[in-house]
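User: Second chain of the day. Same drill as before.
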Amino acid sequence: MDVVHQMFYPRWLTVFAGALMALSSTGAWGAPKNQNAYVVNIDTVSVIDTKTNKIVATIQGPDELVGAAVTPDGSTVYVTVDGFGAGNSVLVIDAATNQIKTTVTVGFGPIFDAVSPDGKKVYVVNDADNTTSVIDTASNTVVATIPVQQFPTAVAVAPNGKRAYVANTFSNSVSVIDTSTDSVVDTISVAQLPIAVIVSPDSRHTYTASFSDTDGITVIDSASDTVTGSIVVGLSPDGLVFTPNGEKLYCTNNHSGTVSVINPETNTVVSTIPVGTNPITPAITQNGRRVYLANLGSNDVSVIDVATDTLTTTIPAGQRPTTVAIQPTRNDDPSSDSTAQQ
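Assistant: Same format as last time:
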């Protein structure tokens, strides 16, 4: 395995890999009681029960699985399939049965995806044809194809639902999409090789991680679409996730094998946590207690305790895990991992 984690599986041999903002959800009364973490491996999805940190199911898929996102009601998981054959598509998985319900054909080279806060749309970035596909979740059909810039690798939808942000790795830019019209309304120049993007819980700031070892994180004011700062983290930052209360931002550093913990108020690193080899995409439980992240190089998942910012558990996964997406749970369930809020 190349340390730059092989972006085109197997065609991604020399390019940089993308990372997804991990899903942060408000949950819903109809959401399931169990909270599962879905770990996307090269050809399977490992389902982890976050109460026990045990794998409870394995979903077989085609080769070149990459990204995943879960709907806010926790009922459906959308997994991207890059490449040829069964590729250029998104698997629609029923979270109740862990069965593939259908497959949606999208653009060429789908990598990562994000679900809108209302659960009505899934935005999928296609790196090989420089587009973003929009899937209507009611019909599971593509309802729009949005041209963006060169080599889009990550997408995040603002928690207020008004904008989607696409990181264009080879254009060193972020495309800003108006979700009411599904059209690009602005383009922001950022640091070299942006490979992950996330929006703060209050929708006021957008952050991109640049895979270049010298450029760290770019901070964007979401109201004006202007760059307001930068943050130095570890080598090759590759994934971002906020705590639900917005008090911490976690950044995986692929080449350092670490996670930087950032205070968004000061945009400074307050802690560094050693994890597995080539950490990529992090996700967080709905209550903000634990961060789960995929370690591509060591074929496992690291679990971080948010209160102490320490590594507490390592869970074996499948081959080449790239993404973790976590299912919301019912807020009224006293046994739920998501009951106690920070």
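The chain has one domain: 36-326.

User: Great, on to the next one.
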